[in-house]
Amino acid sequence: MTTTTRAWRRVGLAAVVLIPLAFTGLFVGALGQGEKSLDSIPVAIVNDDTLQNTTAPDGTETPVFAGRLLVTELTGADGFDWTITNAEDAAAALDAGEVYAVLTVPSNFSTSILSLSSATPQQADISIRTDDSHSYLTGSVAQVVGQTMTDTFGKTITAQYIGGIYASLGDLGTSLGTAAEGATQLSMGATSLSSGLGEYTAGVGSLAGGLDDLRDGAYGLIDLTDGIASYTGGVSQLSGALSQLTPAIEANPTVDPAISGGLRAIADKLAGAAAGGSTLSSQATSGIEGVQYGISQSADGAAQLSAGGPALVSGATGLATGATDLATGLQSGADAVPAADPGTAASMAEIVADPVTLSVSTANPVSNLSQVVATFFIPLGLWVGALAVFLVMRPVTTRALASTARSGRLVSATLGRAAIVTAAQAVLLVGLLHGALGVGWSLLPATLGFSLLIALAFTAFHYLLTTAFGRGGLVISLFLLALQLTSTGGIYPIQALAAPYQAVSPLLPLTYAVSGIQGIVAGGSAVTVVSAAVILFIFGAASTLLAVVAMRRSRRARALGLTPVTA
């Protein structure tokens, strides 16, 4: 045994020791993102909601866009890598596996939310569409997240919103009741006012009549002024006569001086009275004319006031009638509005506390979980099966290396024998898939053909490993198996893994084997299945060509005596 051979054996033994650690460590590392893994799963949001406007009693318009509020809450919260897009692009992304679910907010979402405060509330339906042909678990997780979202939005946010609406309406009802009471009091006051105005206008009418009579009587004061003028004129004449008679009486010696003195005093007083008579007559005439004018003006005003009285009474009567109608209308409105009692408001809010529903649809649904698991474990079983074949079958013997046959012929012969075994494995697994797991037999040509392709590709790859590295190639296969178990999607989304595993996943053959068989069983996109088949074919062909190169190298090394091969 050469030094190089001993070194390779030591490396192989060390690798065998590390295999359990590789399996465990790769799984731990793949799931290292922990709770944040869900945030990396791509999910599309389609917001078809239509903006609505509400008009307040004062005419103020307020825009309502509940769909935008929902989208904002979703994209701002933890859980999924949300992408806002349109319906067409979202459908294409779901079909291609670029997103794992599509959440759609309907066009009537805001309308439905606003209807909760009307007499005919309706539920708003949010839909989630998934595709089992890409990831079974992601669809289930999306449904759970969607249901949680509707519960949160519908039972918390909306319940508070509706509770506020009904509380406001209850307060409005109380205000309307108070207003109705005030209108009733206004009606009663207007009725009393109408009655009082009737009595008042009746009194004004009587006053107007009395003032008319007084004005007619005031015209008789003209005779008083004439009498005063005649009186003052008589006094003046009497004063003049006494003034002339007094000197003669005083000159008569037979007249008692006391009498003549008294007569002189009377004559002087009459002269004074005669002097003020004209002033008295003028003032009396002016005063009486003023009295007559004032009485005439009062009579005219009272007549006008009396003439407007019926209209005033009629207006007061109309006010009372209108106030009564207002009170009746306000009371009817107050009776129609929900009560402001907190218990009643909470009860009514509870009725509409679940206004948002969730509709879930699944493209290419797989109802049987065992079928989903089988789409992962059939390719895995074929990998292990190919590995097992080369545990019992030597890829090359001393006789083969020493023969004159072409290397390509040797490779094809060995691969042919190994392929018979792995093809039988594929047939058995496909039979299990259809017979025991319930996959429709109509898919047999596709499942069998694709499984045979997987088996041949994996057989060629393991032949390459054992040809190039001997039995150490099988250890490499175990390491690759551990890596692929953690980095291959299918049942779970690859985005949930750590970044290095996401990067290596497209380079692994098991990724395409799982993707293709899952697309066939679930009825996914034909493009996905065909693409996976092409990649597996290239992988198998490349492995075969490299195996030929490895065979040539081994034959040269054998010819030079550098590689001992046991026959």
From TrEMBL:
This is Putative membrane protein. The keyword Transmembrane applies. One of its GO terms (cellular component) is membrane. Its main location: membrane. It comes from the Bacteria. GO terms for molecular function: ABC-type transporter activity. InterPro entries: ABC2_TM, Phage_infect_YhgE_C, Phage_infect_YhgE_N, T7SS_ABC-Transporter. The chain crosses the membrane at residues 372-393, 414-437, 443-465, 472-497, 517-550. Signal peptide: none annotated. Residues 13-160, 338-548 form the ABC-2 type transporter transmembrane domain. Pfam families: ABC2_membrane_3. It is a multi-pass membrane protein.
